[in-house]
Each structure stands twice: as structure tokens, then as C-alpha cells.
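Input chain follows. Return C-alpha cells only.
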Amino acid sequence: MDTALSRIVVGYDGSPDADLALQWGAQTARRRDLALETVIVVNDLDPVLGHHHEHAEQAAAEWRELAVTVLSSSDLDDSGIAVRHGPTVPTLLAASHGAEMLVVGSRGHGLMTGSLTGSVSQHLARHATCPVVVVRRPHRPDSRHIVVGVDGSPESDRALRFACGLARAQQQTVFAVHGFHAVTPAKGTTDDIFSSEVAIRIEHAERLLRDWVAAAARENPDVEILTESIAVSPVRALVDSSAVASMVVVGSRGRDAFAELLLGSVSQRVLHDAHCSVAVVR
């Protein structure tokens, strides 16, 4: 296929979650008029034993046939399947260079070296140069809204615009969520939740959130954007919201990037705990 075209890259290993990822990638490519490239990665050497995987090529051939079956009903004008050799993460990162997004399943064949496992999706989300979508079956399959974390940072602004693009293609609503700590640990008590000071902070957070989404709303008049500020941690706000969402979209780093490096980033924790698919945007 012509890799100069705008395209979606899907990492595929024949697992049930990889099937979900390929189905999602194919549907999104068709709705957004993008090319689709399916990449099967074969790890030639066992990193523990140091010898060639005897069944690696056979597995790759089987996965390719499975991918063909999944794609047979996608009605895509431009799709291709490539088998590449090398370590999984660097190979997928190289394949996704310049792509609109990289799509993988949440879990893969954990017993086979080089397959897509949870740790692989975490590494891809950290290091890819394009948005990474990690697909899992949603808790509410009938959900028609996309949750996006917004905190005023450049990354969350890009996440909001990415969510709007998906929502337009999929005819969904965007739900912009801002989680924040209303009470500082040093002086907060249960009674503080009802204090006028906390009420003022909540009102201020809601006003900030409306300001942060205003530009995206003007640019996407055909997308309904709802907002909610929640006086809990950003992780809890997004994970709780994910229970009734089709997808959660987060920026790779938020406003408190240094603190998140020490504690584990919001994006990585949401990626691990969400009840639906997660897109990490940078």
C-alpha cells in the first residue's frame, strides 16, 4: 500500500483483543476515509533461550489468514497486511511513524514472545509519535459518548480535538471531564466538602473547563460537547466515567507532568484501569 497516504496502523497477533482492535481500526478507517495497514510482528529470536522460534513463521501465516477473515467484511478501499520481523515495540513504533493513529488490543497472546501484551500497549502509549488507541470491549457496548480528560494543557487540548474527530465520524457525543482535588491533604476534612471555599473552587473549575473547551466547540459545531468538573482525582474521574463510555481519550502528559512522572501518569493509570477502550494522544 502507499504509506504516504493518511493511514491507521493496527498491530495484530491473532488474539481475541487483536480482532477487536482490527475491527475498530477498519471501521474507523472507512468512516474517516483513511488507509489501513495491519502489521504482524514476528520476533525471530527467543530473548531467553537465544534461538530461532521454530513456529514463528507458521504463527505469522495463521495470523495473516485470521486478519484477512476479519477484514473481509470491512468494505475498505485501501488496506494491506504486512509481516515484519523484530522486537515488538520498536517494530510497531517504526511502522506507525507518520500514521494518524496506532491501534492495538488490550491483551494479546501472553504465551508467545513478541505478542501484544498489556505491557506492550503501555510502552507503545509512552513512546509512539502518533495517538495510540488500546481497544477493549466496553462495559456498556451501547454507549454513544466519548469521555476526554481536560485540564487546560496542550496535550489535553489535542486529546479533545482527537475525541471530536472520532465523535464526528462515529456520530457520538463528547463528554469533557475535569477531575481535580477540591481539598488539600494538609488541611482538608470531610466537613470541608460543604464549605464555601470548596464550593468556590468547584465553580472556578467548571468555569475553567468551559473556557478550555470553547475553541474546540467553535471548530466542531456539528459535535455535541458536554462538560463536567468533578471534585475527585483525575484518574478516578476518568475511570469512573469510562464505565458508561465507548472510549476514554487522554493526553500523554497533563498540567502536572513532573508530579505525574513520580506518581505514575494519569494516562498510564487510566490505560490500565478503564472499563472501555483508551486513546492516548500527544
